[in-house]
Amino acid sequence: MVKKELIKRSPLRILEQSIHGGLGNGNIGVIAARKGVGKTACLVNIAADLMLQEKHVIHVSFSENTHHIIAWYEDIFTELANRFKLDNAQHLHDNFLKNRIIMNFNQDTIDQEKIEKSILTTIETCAFNANTIVLDGYDFGKSSAGDLQSFKNFASQLNLELWFSASVPDDHGYFDGSSIPEMIQPLIDKISIVICLQPRDHFIFLNLVKDHDAEMVGNPHLKLDPRILLIAEEK
Amino acid sequence: MVKDVRKLRNIGISAHIDSGKTTLTERILYYTDKIHTIREVHDKNGGGATMDFMELERERGITITSAATNVRWKNHTINIIDTPGHVDFTIEVERALRVLDGAVLVLCAVGGVQSQSITVDRQLKRYKISSVAFINKCDRVGASPYNVIEQLREKLGHNAVLLQIPIGLEDSLSGVVDLVTMKALYFDGKNGENVRIDDIPNDLLEEAQKKREEMLDALSMLSDELAEAYLEGEETEDLINKAIRIGTLSREITPVLLGSAYKNKGIQPLMDAIISYLPSPKDRINTALDLDNEEKETLLPSNPAIPPVALAFKLEDGHYGQLTYIRIYQGSLKKGDELTNVRSRKKIKIGRLICMHSNSMEDITSASCGEIIALFGIDCASGDTFCGGGLSYSMTSMHIPEPVISLAINPKDKKSSDALSKALNRFTKEDPTFQAYVDAESSQTIIKGMGELHLDIYLERMRREYNAAFDVGMPQVAYRETVTSAVSFNYTHKKQTGGSGQYGRVAGMLESNRDTDYEFINSIKGGAIPSEFIPACDKGFQECLRKGPLIGFPIVRIKITLNDGNYHPVDSSSVAFTNAAIGAFRLAYSKANTCILEPIMKVSVEGPSEFQGNVLATINQRRGIIISTSESDRFSRIDAEVPLSEMFGYSTVLRSHTQGKSEFTMEFSRYGRVPESLAEKLKKEYLEKQKANK
Questions:
Q1: Going from the N-terminus, what domains does chain A have, and what CATH number goes with each?
Q2: Does A7 touch chain B (CB under 8 A)?
């Protein structure tokens, strides 16, 4: 299969349609779930799809090291390449890597201003015109509406969109993935898209719970297959 | 043989170049009675310090290779591994660190925590090595140990706990106050060999009390037992020492001692601290990879009664033949034992076991786990693991990376030529990533290694240690050629004009191969090519791979499927089919969208965050791809992939962009495609070179 075909057939096109064409520059999207349910996998699926389209992604993580994140991308690329028998996979892989920079911060010791400054330096110094920033492991518990507004301004200024993951703590009341989790409720004005992950029947379903300003939210009928880590259509 | 492994310490002395590490080591050797006169590093009589025995090191006043020295102190055995202080010699450092259990971090009371101390400290942290800090040069003008402690906390993030305060500073430094025993220590005698314990001078009493409280506050956090006793005012020396040891082993605190090695002040208390606070081999967890069990990580218990596992971490070619330094991780060794070198599968018999002093040696009959000893006349390479009792453990990964850079060296005369071959023979054995061969075409000696700096160090050593005079060519990157599309071929080799003829036809497919460098598949059905000629076809293809037509480098990632052909009952021969394969390959290769590959290096740059932008720019200018950046409050690390050809001279560039405060490491990652414009340039250069040769 050629790359063009792979992009065209990607289930993420369905997600785009469901959310009225996509997240959009200057906007924040959140993927929420309990710990270990597949937030990173979803973010990497979204990022990898953009990277294949030659769009630039900055993956910001707040974890201990970056090795496992690199491994996520490698696994997902290999899975796509093998499953869809991609032509010239080696060459595509080399180009794929050029479209991503991973940045790792220690949220305890670095404030948001410094994070934004550091991202800006990277974009400018490396002439890396990022289209999307994914922020994995950001602690919404420590974040205020002001912080999110600052991120939104930053994104508007640079013409890019921001995808976050939000980990719903175990002690945080009832959460079944069917509605906006309590922890991001106070910040919901600043967030355009919320997708909750619902594990059931050996799959993880992507449940759209906020879609820009739409009153009726459609279901994209997508699921994450935990064995192969790819997002697929619900059949 | 050490009877009780708990009374053994394997330590390194890690420091910035000029903080007096070698002087300190000398003093330790002196006090432990191993040498009888004290020599200085920059001795005018040419004596030089005992640990720095290579001429190059003596001249620069730095230590390049790690020698191991065994000393005794208060019923304990201490092996001192002299770790190199210079960033450029990372291979040596990493190897030395591998066998350490603890370290003394030497800091200069005047210079404080310098960028090099940061590097050394980071290496210790990477290997999770417990350390005690020694603030040296307290006798120098401008000495300010309290400043250094602040830097130790702020710049290196150590929970530094001061165990001593100085009595006087600069030229008036006369001793130290021990805050644990609350006694003053003076160092009498010509060389400070007599430690005199006295009462704390009245003018220091108040400060000592204050600093002791600070120390006890910090230690109370580590031990409830001490905290309770402290509250009651009943803390004992024993409890305090126990808490310091617990904190040091878990790397929660770094005890700080001070003095002046040059003026013989504070060395003996440092020795006491080494045996009291640093870990014994039993306190450390060591693992190996079990090769019989899919390289599963396996614990190496510090038990002398089980089959031995030992790591050769350093080879030395001395006057008496090859010396191999090893550390025993489990089990015991004795003279006459048989061991297997896990890498080469060769069996060796232990002839002589040696306990090493810096430049002299002592024969021993046996040694057990935790000990560092040397073996004589063992054929092995550095990094090899030796096992007994049928075990197949490897302490290091078995993978040895292929060298990616080469350069030609031409000896100036016969004497140099002989010296060179001796040197190369030794270095290639000591370092598996360093290789040497004679190029058949140019008859030049080519050396290969992992980077520019790597080769530079060896060139310098050949000049110094072997007096070899030679010219050096420009460094050459090891390019490769390959194809990107599949092409079918059908080629007939025919020479049937009189005499015995040659005939062979081969047909099949040439395509790119992601996994291996060369794969040959024989799909001939029905004897279109008789099976006795198939190896000849394979040979013909392989011959073509040695040197590609684009720029003369080997061709890789090729898969050839042979599916048809033809033969002549009389004129077909192996030679004919080899020639047919060569012809077929050449033709197909020219149509298969060829490209040039270059070594891409994994480059990591670490340093203060303030220079992150500068570092990113240097990588970006070098066709680098940023893989990731990591930032904490002060430090940042950038991981990138950069083509090797762009990395020449990078250390100088990095130094000038970061005020010398960042360091980088580089290792081979993969082969990547050379951009079209650069590929054209390489092809043009190759053509011109060929024309010139004609």
A1: 3-233 (3.40.50.300)
A2: no
